[in-house]
Each structure stands twice: as structure tokens, then as C-alpha cells.
Amino acid sequence: MATPLSPTVIDTLLHNNREWAAAAVRGDPGFFQRLAQQQAPKYLWIGCSDSRVPANQITGMQPGEVFVHRNIANVVVHADLNCLSVMQFAVDVLKVEHIIVCGHYGCGGVHAVLNDTRVGLADNWLRHVGDVAQKHGALLARSPNDEHRHAVLCDLNAIEQAVNVCQTTVVRDAWARGQTLAVHGWVYALRDGLLRALTPGIDGVDAIEPAYRTSLARLDRNGAPGGSPASAMR
Predict the structure, then answer these.
(1) Which of 56, 96, 174, 178 is the one with CA 20 to 30 A from 5?
(2) Active-site residues: which are they?
(3) Residue 47 belongs to what domain range?
(4) pLDDT tens track for 126-162
């Protein structure tokens, strides 16, 4: 029986890579030559680290088409130099045209916040999601059950983090110089594999507040559009 340290376990990944590379060349002989020259993605994806939410696969994009940053619970913090550096490179160097902040139902970080579960060092990081829950406590309190409350907080967190992206100097400077750039808040449902837009595209400073109000009003009126996290995890 293979153990975590068995060569056969890690060798499986290397074998899979060779098969994938060979299939890619069969389908497009010049694929890797073009990819090696440059990347020209139009999208920056800021998502959760959850292994069930791979950006390229769920959007149908090929390598080189999406620039990706992931962390626990898809949080955007103005003091996070890792995230800000990714954003700056994507916007200023790669000239992406869209930044997508994508949450997902069944998020373990959101679950930990709602259940006040201690997970260790990440508790400090998840405090930012806790701030979102505190800010929208009245809306969350109207949820009929814990599953619905979880789904609503997943939506709220994606919306708030998208607004945080809009407030960064990276994005505001891009808008000030007339660069084409839109910010989007999305959520992904594990139960059906579908992405849902939570915010309209925000393409300038004046669009932030109207988009934010529209998104919250829709959520307040309809509840979590993607269903409960329990169904999302199936």
C-alpha cells in the first residue's frame, strides 16, 4: 500500500503531467512554443485556496489566459503586500482588463467564522471575514437556518472584497489614467459547477457605490442566489 512518502504517490503527478503535455501537443503542436514566449491574460482571478475551485478549469481558460491569486476565503486586505503585488503586476504590467473576486459556497473559512471555530494562525486572517459578518449582522440574522446564513455570508464576503479591490491605489490609479479595467464579484457553487455574478462590472470610482448598493439590495431581496452550502457541497 502506498504511503504519503511513497515514490509511486508523487510519481503519479509526474506521469499525469507527461500525459497532459503530450495531449496538448497532439491537439496543438505549437502550444508550448507560444506559451513560452509570453503571457497575455485579460483576467486577474482572486479566489479561495480551496482545491475544488480551480480558476482555469471552471472558467474554461487555457494556461496563460488567467492570472491567479488565491488565499483562504478570497480576502483582499490593503496591508497584504502579496495580494497587492499580484494586482499591481496584473494591472500595470500585464494590463488585464478584468479583476474577478470569486467566493464559493461551502467555504471552510466562512464556516469557521460563523461557528466561531478556532483553526490556528488563520484565525487572524479570517477576522476580515468576521468583520463582514459583523457589518451585515442584521441581514444574516434574517436567514432561516445556518446553511442559508453560510451562503449569504459567502456572497457578502465576495461583494465586500470586490469593493476592497476597487479601493486600492492600484485600481484607482489605473482608472485615473484611463485604463480599461472592470472589477467583478462572483460566487461559485460546488453543487452544479456554475459561476454567478454578484455585482455588475465596476469600471470606475463613480460606479463603486451604485454597484455596491445594487448588489446588497438584490441579496437582501432574493437571499443567496446559489442555494445553501450543504447542497453546494454535494
Answers:
(1) 56
(2) 48, 50, 52, 104, 107
(3) 39-232
(4) 999 999 999 999 999 999 999 999 999 999 999 999 9
